[in-house]
Amino acid sequence: MNEREYVPSIAITAHVKFPTADDSKGLGTGDWDEGIGLELAKRFGESWVGFLDGGFTVIGNPEKVVGRPAGVPLENQWWNYDVGLGFYVTKALLASVFYEEWRTLVPSTVNPRDILFSLSYKATQTVRFQAAFVKGISNDAPDYGVTAGMAFRF
User: 0.85 cut: is pTM over it?
Assistant: First the structure.
């Protein structure tokens, strides 16, 4: 739903995590994860935009994770929530910063938290390219991360 005077834009999102981590080293499930989310965005003036996002992820086969303590199940996640602020550098290029937190997969551990810096380039009305850098700020978050992607809006 497009933004209106007092109403933010609202988008339903879907995501898929490819099984690229080495499950034999305990780095992932070695399986696909899928999820759905909700994004809210509201422009302020010509150049600023605020963000609020959240969603849920179904974790792939958690029984395959090496090093998982016996009897400790991995849980599906309310994958995260984030709050962010963006600035349009040009009409097509948006630079943003987000605070992110997501529920831990293992009960009784600390929720991972990070700061995400991103660039989003609007190539056409329906196609956007994105790149991001993540810096973990909690013990259970990755120290650093880099991601790139493409989004289709319709």
Answer: no
